[in-house]
Amino acid sequence: MNSPSACATPRARHVQCLSPSGLHRIAYTEWGDADNPRVLVCVHGLTRSGRDFDRLAAALSDTYRVVCPDVVGRGLSSWLADPRGYGVAQYVADMVTLIARIGVEQVDWFGTSMGGLIGMALAGLPDTPIARMVLNDVGPHIEPAALARIGDYVGNDARFASLQAGIDEAARLAASFGPLTAQEWREINMPLLHEAEGAWRFRYDPRIAAPIKAATPEQAALGEQLLWGALAAFKGAVLVVRGEQSDLLSRETVAKMVETGHDVMSVEMPGVGHAPAFVRDEQIAVARQFLCAPRPRAS
Asked: What is the pLDDT of residue 3?
């Protein structure tokens, strides 16, 4: 087994995945003992990166091998040749490949926003590898006001004169994560930026917005229906985390999720909106209590 200090040191890895338009690379950060069969996969939101989970991953690396991928089109992962591939189906396929690379039969899941949608879709499949799941401020139904807010900025190819200017803009866009310190914003936002063509730019492919903006109301309704079905099909334990001020996940949706799922509980984080950042000790403690609880014996 690795030493405790080694467990809290991240390792950069990647895996090759396949889409209809060719091969692409998924980058991921791995924490904890590389031989630990107990794995937690943490998947980020729409324009974020796996480095959002550095503090959570370090804290849980005493129990888990924690794997934090950059979803395709984000962070250090490749961009798809065909932007029409940016969607949950491709993301789920990539996560299946990632789990195969990790070499385990079963994982636990922590998904923030988009990462939760990917988790629900994968959890609802027969023989899913997901055992238990945290859904961080997301459910099958997304409030229209949040969709409009996200649509206002996603896909904009912003450029900044300095790294700090980019960090500050990312903090503005994610202000509802909570009242983070300047250092906390720097930690989670710096990996989102890189210097290119004489300016600082976000690392994500602006074309990830194309499928979202092209979706019809009928397609959106079908997607929601499929996610409700996936939640109902999943037999593992689920913790739904809602930011008290969230504009994306309503209390009504949370109540329906508890009613629909097999074993769903919920908690509301005070003083934050969409989505709780899980960089503070009190939030990390909530995740630990749920994820590290003894597993019920199979009947």
From this structure: 41
| Integer angstrom CA distances of residue 211 from 44, 82, 206, 207 | 18, 11, 11, 8
Q: Examine the pLDDT at 299 and tell me if it is beyond 70.
A: no
pLDDT tens for 220-271 read 999 999 999 999 999 999 999 999 999 999 999 999 999 999 999 999 999 9
Structural domains of the chain, with CATH: 4-143+217-291 (3.40.50.1820)
Is the previous residue joined to 275 through a cis bond, with omega within 30 degrees of 0? Answer: yes
pLDDT of residue 152: 87
DSSP for the chain, written as a single string: ---HHHHTS-EEEEEEEEETTEEEEEEEEEES-TT-S-EEEEE--TT--GGGGHHHHHHHTTT-EEEEE--TTSTTSPPPSSGGG-SHHHHHHHHHHHHHHHT-S-EEEEEETHHHHHHHHHHTSTT-SEEEEEEES--SS--HHHHHHHHHHTT---EESSHHHHHHHHHHHTGGG----HHHHHHHHGGGEEEETTEEEESS-GGGHHHHHH--HHHHHHHHHHHHHHHHH--SEEEEEEETT-SSS-HHHHHHHHHHSSEEEEEEETT--S-----SHHHHHHHHHHHTSPPPPP-
Among positive and negative, which fits the CA dihedral 137, 143, 147, 150? negative
- The CB density around residue 18, as the number of other CB atoms within 10 Å, is 12
Q: Which tokens in the block code for residue 124?
A: 């609802």
**HSE-CB of 268 using CA atoms within 13 angstroms:** 13
- Tens digit of pLDDT for each residue in 49-95? 999 999 999 999 999 999 999 999 999 999 999 999 999 999 999 99
Distance, in Å, from the CA atom of 91 to the CA atom of 19, rounded to the nearest integer, reads: 10
